[in-house]
Structures are given as structure tokens and as C-alpha cells.
Amino acid sequence: MGKLKHQLPGIKSSLYRPLSESDVKKIADSSFEILGKSGVAVYSDSALRAFEAAGARVDADTRIVRLPRSLVEDAIGSNPSSITLYSRNGEYDCVLEKNRVHYGTGGTAIYVLDPETHQRRPSTTEDIIWNARFVEVLENIHLFTINVFPNEIEDKNHIDVNRFFHSLNNTAKHVMGGIYSMSGLQHVVRMAEMIAGGADALKAKPFVSFITLMISPFKIDDDYGEMTCYCAEKDLPIVVPTEPLCGTTSPITLAGNVLTHTAETLAGITLVQCVKRGAPGICGSVGSTTNLQTMDHLSGSIERAMINAAVSQMAQYFEIPLYSTGGTTDAKKVDIQAAYESAMSSLLVAMSGANYIHDIAGLMEFDLTVSYEKLVMDNEILGMCQRVLRGIEVNDDTLATELIIEKGPGQDYLAEEHTVRHMREEFFVPKLASRQKRDSMEPGSDALSRARQFVRKLRGKEPRDMLPADVRKRILQEFPEILNPSSVK
Questions:
Q1: Which residues of 365-392 are buried (b: 16+ CB within 10 A; e: fewer)?
Q2: I need a labelling partner for 155 at 20 to 30 A (CA). Which of 21, 114, 291, 392 fits?
Q3: What does the domain layout of the chain look like in residue ranges?
Q4: What residues in the chain have per-residue pLDDT under 70?
Q5: Domain 5-20+76-390: assigned CATH number
């Protein structure tokens, strides 16, 4: 049986608009003004050369690059307005455009809540494998952004190829990830080309994409700049996110933070287009607010969701695909705080029409920790979000005016063909939440217990490789730094 309407990825939404049309125009104009007058500090030689060749004003001594409005507008115009992040089997292709919404993991957490002990511990390669397997079967998580760090791998040049290999070997959904070294990035691209059947095949249907970073406030560092240029030259999807924090790396006001977000990520898009016109650049919005008592960033504040929803409006105004953030929490365990913070931000950002919302499943504790149980619970929250985005369909069939008149007062509709035809499509049916009466509930039927049962059941299944055996063998021979899969299962 196929997916229900509210289970399909890419539902359109413009239900929450925190900015007025005049607000959007003012932020856009202010972004152009900042990039033209103040500019961006660029520490990558390749990026500096690309900007200069395209007509930016470059100060070689300070490495400050000022971007004329015409240059930024030209970059916006040449950047694709629709970018598809392909799955390998075609079932979960994610079309990032306009206000179409998709969900995924993310965060590169350095800890997990161990599913056996429920205690926090450093994440490992085994956790990458298990998170990919969970994402593969959770229907409301549309792509896998690699969400944990392999702490046992000490050589940074070996991190990327291990993270991507074990992800691709355990899910057919699109795999996105941050990158740690140029050589690691090059190895991942080479590996992906082997899986795709060549560079042209990968370019035609990229099933991997990459995340670099704009360093707030207004810096492009050497490593991220070089890697951004490399991805643009290869014509592979590249996210250029920015992470300004209210009161520390951006003005303390939400408006000032949204402006910083917008201007910084436009600088990243401009770099991508200066390297190669038409390369698939994706705006990024990851910032948040600051706990001014401790100077830590907050991931569960409602203002974070408001900021990302506003940046979603800005991306739609410029018609550039957006990688956004939602579903995060500052809770240290899977509790009431984790539920309401995650649900509120997931729904707000989804209702804004953000194209790809990462971090939205499994992440907690200031984005430091991933929980398997929360990954499963967030999948249920996202199912509810999907039902909201689908909305209420009003037509002659759904209104059922003639049926109401035919039945008349005092009659029920249980046995009607209309009821049978619509009963599955119309409602979201939870898998974890209990809808039983109190006296009929059995022990272990609460939502958290059911989530833990799901985790135990999946982890008890025999693992299977998702890459073809011959391709997997060639990859492992070419990249001996990849940890042997059998040693981490």
C-alpha cells in the first residue's frame, strides 16, 4: 500500500509568516547594503580569487571582500531555484524549492544516550551505522544528515570517508554531511562516483551533498572556503549555512539576527556562483539565541524557531533553496521538556515552508547529544507536522453536503462508503502515543516505553549492507582507512 497524502515528502506550506512583505524587502535591501559596504573577511585563496575575478572589491591586505549589489543579485539569479537531493532508490527524492518541506537529522553530536544504559557516552562509528539504519525505516525522516561524530577516529583525514561510507551502506535515503578536510572531501566524492557509476552520473543525480560554513560574523575561513569552491567546481549540492547567535555573534534582536543570517548566507551563495555559474548552492540557517548567564548557545528556545521561520521567508523571497533548523531541545533526557521544545520548533519552522529542516530528529542537549528514543519520538512528531501542513481539503466530496442532507438529523455515518473511503487518509494515526482508556492500558504502553521497544526491536534485527557487494569491496580496497564494517556492527 502506498504512502498516505500526509506521509509524502515535499508538502507545500506557508502557514506561518513572522515577517510582513515590507519587513522582507527591508531585510533584503539591508543585506545588500552590508555586503557592499562592510563586506566579508575571506581567508581562502581560492575564494578570494573567485570573488576578485567576478568583480568584487578585494582588499588584499585586510582580505576584506566587498560585494556590489549587482554581483550578489546576479548570483541569486544564476543559483538554481530548485535543487533535488536524490535518494538511491527514488522513493525519498527531496525537491528543495519554493515552500516544499522535508525533514532530516543533523548536528554532528559528539555524544549519544546509550540505548542500553540510557547514559550519555561518546559517539562512535557504530552509532553512525545505527542512526542511518533508523532513518532508513522512519517514514517521516526524508534524508540522513550524518548526525554523530566517530570519536575513535583520530586522523581528521579519515573522518569523512568513514562517516559517508557507513551512512551510504546503511540507508538508501539521501546522505548529507559536514566535512572535516579537503582530502576527506575528495575521497567521499570519489567514493560516491564509484557508487553512481561515474562523475557524470553523480552530477546528474547526486545522492550525497555537503555542508561547509560561514563563520559568524561575516568570515569565510581557509578550509571551508576551499571546500566550498571544490564542491561548486564539481557541481555538487553545497550548503553554505550561517550560525549567528543573538547577543554574541549577531545583534541581540531577532531582526538583527535574521539580517545577519540573510547577508552571510547570501555571501556564501555568491561565492558558489562566482566559482561556477549554475552550481547548486543552498542557503543555510542554523543560528539561535544565547544564554547570557552562561554565554552558551540555546537550541530549544522558541526564538530559534522564529528566526529560522523568518529566514525561510527570506529564502523564498530570493527563490533559493534553504537548509534550516528545527526540532532541537536543551533537555538532557527524553522528557517533557524535550517533547514540547522539539514539537513547537518543528511545527513553526515546518509551517514556514523551510525546504529542508535538519537537526529535527534525535538531537538534544544544546545539539551535543543524539538519543535513539528521541529519534523515534520525533518521527511521530513529524508525522503530526505533516498532517498540519496538508491542511483541510475542501471540495464537494470532502464537504459531503448531499450525504449530510440524505442522512438527516440524528443519524450516524459509521457504515457509510464515504467514511470507509476517507478514514485512512484523513487522520494521522500515531504509533507511539496511547489512545486507550486508563483502565485498559497495559504496562509499557506509554509513548516512551513504546519508543524504547521500537529501538530494541530494530537493533535486534540482522543488519544488511545496502551497497552492492562488488562496489563495497572496491571501495574498501581503495580506502583502507575505512573501519571494517564487521568490526563495528
A1: bbbbbbbbbbbbbbbbbbbbbbbebbee
A2: 114
A3: 5-20+76-390, 396-426
A4: 1, 485-489
A5: 3.20.20.480
